[in-house]
Amino acid sequence: MAEVLLNVSGLKVAYGGIQAVKGVDFEVREGELVTLIGSNGAGKTTTMKAITGLLPLAGGDIQYLGKSIRGRGAWDLVKQGLAMVPEGRGVFTRMTITENLQMGAHIRNDTAEIARDMDKVFGIFPRLRERRDQLAGTMSGGEQQMLAMGRALMSRPRVLLLDEPSMGLSPIMVDKIFEVVREVHGQGVTVFLVEQNASRALQIADRAYVMESGVITMSGEAKQMLSDPKVRAAYLGE
Ligand code: ATP
């Protein structure tokens, strides 16, 4: 079996006195595309924020490559190969597209390779190439999502963490984003995808975890979950 890259065990996260994540376990192995699905308010984003050091842990541990990354900041994680695309994108609105992509490569100094990777990102997202000198803040939600993904790819991540990449996007843009996630995964990047769009996420994932009210209620092969009547009834609107 492939190496465990990300291992979350007994994770608890609280807002004040309220526990939003109540002891969650899951793992992501090298080469996998793992999705965490669940309805609104289940605790998915909270889990992602704990992994990337944006929220403190109230219990448990998060390990990357066998070592605890509790409390590590985003910068440190990116250096170790763990890049995140946050919910709401988080692009630098007053910078151009090109500048945003350059920021994604800030941990690198291989100038020629950076230029080549930027060209690759422009190949995946031709819209970004067309608008390379435009300020990111003036772009549509879908374009900003593309940019946030492109920026994360510029760090050459080993693991890509995506928080609800399809949120608020038009159906065409959602198609594009899922296509790109599948493509990036196909190129060998391990992906951990938090999604509310369970149907689409299960279609491209290898394995899935379902979260409800701060706990994992189900897990398994994505294909099997897609045909599971309980999953279909609760998350696929049937
Ligand atoms: P969504 O798809 O809506 O983002 P989610 O599964 O990502 O849902 P979270 O955003 O992690 O859910 O929220 C989990 C719980 O924590 C919810 O009950 C939410 O109201 C609560 N919560 C989230 N952010 C805060 C906050 N800053 N302060 C207090 N409670 C919060």
UniProtKB/TrEMBL annotation:
<dbReference type="GO" id="GO:0015658">
    <property type="term" value="F:branched-chain amino acid transmembrane transporter activity"/>
</dbReference>
<dbReference type="InterPro" id="IPR027417">
    <property type="entry name" value="P-loop_NTPase"/>
</dbReference>
<dbReference type="GO" id="GO:0005524">
    <property type="term" value="F:ATP binding"/>
</dbReference>
<keyword id="KW-0472">Membrane</keyword>
<keyword id="KW-0813">Transport</keyword>
<dbReference type="GO" id="GO:0016887">
    <property type="term" value="F:ATP hydrolysis activity"/>
</dbReference>
<dbReference type="InterPro" id="IPR003593">
    <property type="entry name" value="AAA+_ATPase"/>
</dbReference>
<protein>
    <submittedName>
        <fullName>ABC transporter ATP-binding protein</fullName>
    </submittedName>
</protein>
<dbReference type="InterPro" id="IPR052156">
    <property type="entry name" value="BCAA_Transport_ATP-bd_LivF"/>
</dbReference>
<dbReference type="Pfam" id="PF00005">
    <property type="entry name" value="ABC_tran"/>
</dbReference>
<dbReference type="GO" id="GO:0015807">
    <property type="term" value="P:L-amino acid transport"/>
</dbReference>
<keyword id="KW-0029">Amino-acid transport</keyword>
<keyword id="KW-0547">Nucleotide-binding</keyword>
<feature type="domain" description="ABC transporter">
    <location>
        <begin position="6"/>
        <end position="238"/>
    </location>
</feature>
<comment type="similarity">
    <text>Belongs to the ABC transporter superfamily.</text>
</comment>
<keyword id="KW-1003">Cell membrane</keyword>
<dbReference type="InterPro" id="IPR030660">
    <property type="entry name" value="ABC_branched_ATPase_LivF/BraG"/>
</dbReference>
<dbReference type="InterPro" id="IPR017871">
    <property type="entry name" value="ABC_transporter-like_CS"/>
</dbReference>
<keyword id="KW-0067">ATP-binding</keyword>
<dbReference type="InterPro" id="IPR003439">
    <property type="entry name" value="ABC_transporter-like_ATP-bd"/>
</dbReference>
